[in-house]
């Protein structure tokens, strides 16, 4: 009876590891931060041709994803973030499989250009051009 | 507008004309009688006008008045006294007690039944109006309309000269298949339409139709409706916006004089190819045995074998103007305009009066091939010496295809890869699920592919092997959904083509004037729409982004314009039309804020399997890189 229980427990313990067992796994994952860009790279087991990586914030909200090709068992990619904080890069084989994660800290971000100030820049530019024009005319008149 | 159309028709136009039999009716004193409600094919009382809540009979709201599951009839019992009858229609729960005189109402449309009851007869419903005339035949108010332009974001564009006309159907989205169910009350709006130079034409798209139909529609303030005051509109129609026919009186009728030439079975294989001669004037060459399109494949002709009957000039596909026209039309035109000096004739005059060459699917204009659908009489490819044709086989070789591909004009069977470069490749559409494709070099001009390579993907992304004279491509993953190939031929020249394996079609359009993101997708029939999760990343013009999750939408177009009142449509069992193979189709949506659409720059969709956990990923089904890029359309404002 003990042997039977042991067998059942062993089988139950194995079940989680047999899910997607046929799918290649991520064998290494590294992630780095440069300003507001998180770059990552890793390696896969044989048989994988693509990988899916997702980016999670500190509250485990999925905020971005990117699938990339796997070439010679290697892959790489990057995410851009808009605020500092702790982020988690999570990667798995594109067709599914075990997830591998890497946590990074973004300390400083550079706000993306939004184009919101485009009108202001235009006005300043036009005024500047008019000013330069006026000065040129005045200079020419003085030369005469 | 609806009132005007009503007057024109003399009968109701509403899609609520559910009873389509028109047997003579008399009032009989004896009762009860058996009453049979006969519904138009495809009628579903709960889906009309979207919400199904406004079917009113004598002021009582009915939401479930519909045919039985077994057919398109419902049987009730009528107890009548003079003109007043009480009809009980039972359908399990609840049963309806309807007291006459009968007034049927849905939305703004009101109908009454005038003295409707005779013994065990079929009822019909007529519009309330004066001097009502009994129509001679049933009117089918719903039409499967194929918009023969270029589909973009639920609308269709037509190019007429330098002008572009955008056609939209209010409250509906024209699918990629281009075929949509349109009723007579649907408003079709034409943006960019010039009534002085353009016209709108509808014609049969049933090649087996014994009495081919064609007529011009009246455009009123850039709006048209699919109506024919003379009745008799066929259920399947082609809708074309085109340059105005100079010889056309523009009347709305189905007079044979204004109908299109013979189609389908009536096509006798005889036609002229007419083109602008190199040194001016008009050249023409007679064809006597063009096969009709029954097998769905193109018939090929070598351009240099086509000789002008008058001067002996060889046809070249680079001719400035060219078109096919039926022999009898051309001959008749020549007779009526005799004597014709072809050396000085302006070909535009002939095109305006006799041309039949429409390109309903926007077949690309190849450098070395001229493709004509001959107004759906035939599919012809005329090729120059430099033509390099390839195909991905016919439907029998595919495991997956949508129902729309059964239409020989909705699927290309050949692609010219001549004059292509790595930056300007030919594009071949395929279904994502079709992991294996067989590329064949078409045996014209002695063209053979001696080497085929996939560009810019890892070596194990696509397996490429040559089997006999075909190249077998096996894609290792759905991730590789857009792959560029380089073909080296037996002359040592290189050509390029890109295979786009698609499954998601995303766009923005309005539902009840509210903007929504749409994402339709195909998947294997063994799966359910609920097996998938659709997410998207919205990129705004100001650089900000947002991740969203789309939700399933009940009311999916099966690809033939049939709206199914369900979350998914089976392409092998469409409500109407031919069957596809191996695919189901579903639609996911996301509601945007009122003015959000115009702030969006891009949308990327990803379709993943449900069931991921914190340690295990269930897998992606479609989307590479950021995802499948939407074909954005800023809907009505």
Give a short summary of the structure.
Chain A is of the alpha+beta class and 144 residues long. Chain A has helices at residues 2-18, 118-143, and strands at residues 26-34, 37-44, 50-56, 62-69, 74-80, 85-93, 97-98, 100-106.
Keywords:
heterodimer, A: 144 residues, alpha+beta, Immunoglobulin-like, 2 domains, 4-stranded antiparallel β-sheet, 3-stranded antiparallel β-sheet, 8 strands, B: 637 residues, mainly beta, 5 domains, 5-stranded antiparallel β-sheet, 5-stranded mixed β-sheet, disordered N terminus
Can you walk me through this structure?
The complex is a heterodimer of chains A (144) and B (637). Helices cover 30% and strands 40% of the residues of chain A. Chain A is α+β, with helices and mostly antiparallel strands and 144 residues long. In chain A, the strands form two sheets. A four-stranded antiparallel sheet of chain A has the order 4-3-6-8, with no helix packed on it. In chain A, strands 1-2-5 form a three-stranded antiparallel sheet, with no helix packed on it. The model of chain A is unreliable at 11-20 (pLDDT under 50). By secondary structure, chain B is mostly beta strands. Chain B folds into five domains: 2-127, no CATH class; 142-260, no CATH class; 265-383, no CATH class; 389-501, Sandwich (Immunoglobulin-like), CATH 2.60.40; 504-629, Immunoglobulin-like. A five-stranded antiparallel sheet of chain B has the order 3-2-7-8-9, with no helix packed on it. The longest helix of chain B has 10 residues, at 327-336. The radius of gyration of chain B is 27 Å and the shape is globular. Residues 1-31, 38-59, 61-73, 80-85, 90-140 and 246-265 of chain B have low confidence and may be disordered. Chain A binds chain B through residues 16, 19-20, 23, 49-50, 52, 62-72, 82, 92-99, 112-116, and chain B through 457-458, 460-461, 476-480, 535, 537, 541-545, 547, 606, 609, 614-620, 623-627.
């Amino acid at each position: 009876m003990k042997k039977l229980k042991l067998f059942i427990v062993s089988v139950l313990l194995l079940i989680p590891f047999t899910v997607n067992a046929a799918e290649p796994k991520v064998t290494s994952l590294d992630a780095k931060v440069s300003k507001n860009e998180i770059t990552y790279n890793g390696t896969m087991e044989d048989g994988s041709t693509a990988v899916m990586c997702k980016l999670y914030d500190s509250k485990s909200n999925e905020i971005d994803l990117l699938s990339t090709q796997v070439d010679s068992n290697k892959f790489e990619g990057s995410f851009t973030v808009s605020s500092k904080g702790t982020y988690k890069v999570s990667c798995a084989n594109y067709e599914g499989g075990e997830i591998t994660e890497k946590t990074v800290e973004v300390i400083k971000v550079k706000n993306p250009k939004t184009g919101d100030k485009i009108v202001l820049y235009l006005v300043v530019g036009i005024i500047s051009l008019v000013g330069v024009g006026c000065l040129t005319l005045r200079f020419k008149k003085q030369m005469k | 507008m609806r009132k005007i159309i009503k007057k024109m028709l003399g009968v109701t136009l509403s899609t609520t004309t559910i009873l389509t039999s028109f047997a003579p009716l008399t009032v009989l004193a004896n009762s009860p009688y058996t009453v049979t409600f006969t519904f138009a094919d495809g009628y579903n009382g709960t889906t009309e006008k979207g919400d199904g809540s406004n079917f009113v009979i004598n002021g009582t709201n009915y939401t479930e008045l519909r045919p039985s599951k077994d057919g398109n009839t419902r049987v009730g019992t009528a107890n009548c006294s003079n003109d007043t009858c009480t009809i009980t229609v039972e359908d399990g729960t609840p049963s309806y007690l309807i007291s006459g005189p009968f007034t049927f109402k849905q939305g703004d449309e009101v109908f009454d039944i005038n003295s409707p009851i005779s013994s065990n007869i079929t009822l019909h419903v007529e519009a309330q109006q004066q001097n009502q005339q009994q129509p001679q035949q049933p009117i089918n108010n719903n039409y499967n309309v194929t918009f023969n332009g270029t589909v973009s974001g639920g609308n269709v564009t037509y190019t007429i000269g330098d002008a572009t006309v955008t056609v939209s159907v209010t409250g509906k989205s024209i699918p990629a298949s281009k075929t949509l169910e349109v009723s007579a009350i649907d408003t079709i709006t034409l943006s960019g339409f010039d009534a002085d130079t353009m016209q709108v034409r509808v014609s049969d798209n049933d090649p087996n139709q014994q009495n081919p139909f064609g007529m011009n529609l009246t455009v009123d303030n850039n709006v048209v409706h699919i109506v024919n005051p003379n009745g008799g509109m066929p259920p399947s129609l082609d809708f074309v916006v085109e340059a105005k026919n100079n010889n056309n009186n523009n009347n709305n009728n189905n007079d044979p004089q204004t109908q299109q030439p013979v189609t389908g079975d009536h096509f006798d294989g005889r036609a002229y190819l007419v083109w602008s001669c190199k040194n001016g004037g008009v050249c023409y060459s007679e064809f006597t045995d063009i096969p009709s399109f029954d097998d769905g494949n193109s018939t090929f002709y070598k351009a240099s074998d086509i000789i002008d009957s008058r001067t002996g000039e060889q046809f070249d596909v680079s001719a400035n103007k060219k078109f096919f026209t039926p022999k009898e039309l051309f001959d008749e035109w020549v007779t009526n305009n005799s004597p014709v000096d072809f050396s000085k004739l302006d070909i535009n005059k002939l095109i305006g009066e006799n041309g039949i060459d429409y390109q309903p699917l926007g077949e690309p204009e190849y450098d070395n091939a001229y493709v004509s659908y001959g107004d759906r009489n035939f599919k012809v490819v005329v090729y120059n010496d430099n033509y390099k044709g390839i195909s991905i086989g016919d439907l029998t070789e595919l495991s997956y295809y949508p129902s729309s591909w059964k239409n020989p004009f909705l699927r290309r069977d050949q692609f010219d890869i001549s004059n292509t470069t790595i930056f300007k490749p030919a594009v071949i559409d395929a279904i994502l699920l079709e992991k294996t494709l067989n590329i064949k070099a078409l045996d014209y001009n002695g063209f053979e592919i001696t080497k085929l390579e996939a560009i810019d993907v890892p070596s194990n992304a696509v397996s490429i092997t040559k089997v006999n004279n075909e190249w077998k491509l096996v894609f290792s993953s759905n991730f590789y959904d857009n792959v560029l190939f380089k073909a080296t031929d037996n002359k040592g020249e290189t050509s390029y083509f890109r295979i786009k394996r698609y499954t998601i079609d995303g766009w923005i359009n309005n539902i009840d004037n509210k903007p929504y993101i749409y994402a339709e997708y195909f998947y294997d029939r063994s799966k359910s729409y609920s097996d998938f999760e659709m997410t998207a990343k919205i990129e705004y013009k100001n650089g900000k982004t947002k991740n969203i999750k789309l939700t399933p939408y009940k009311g999916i177009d099966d690809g033939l314009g049939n709206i199914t009142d369900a979350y998914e449509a089976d392409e092998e069992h469409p409500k109407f039309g031919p069957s596809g193979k191996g695919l189901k189709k579903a639609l996911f949506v996301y509601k945007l804020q009122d003015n959000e659409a115009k702030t969006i720059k891009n949308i990327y969709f990803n379709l993943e399997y449900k069931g991921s956990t914190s340690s295990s990923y269930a897998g992606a089904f479609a989307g590479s890189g950021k995802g499948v890029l939407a074909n954005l359309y800023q809907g009505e404002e």
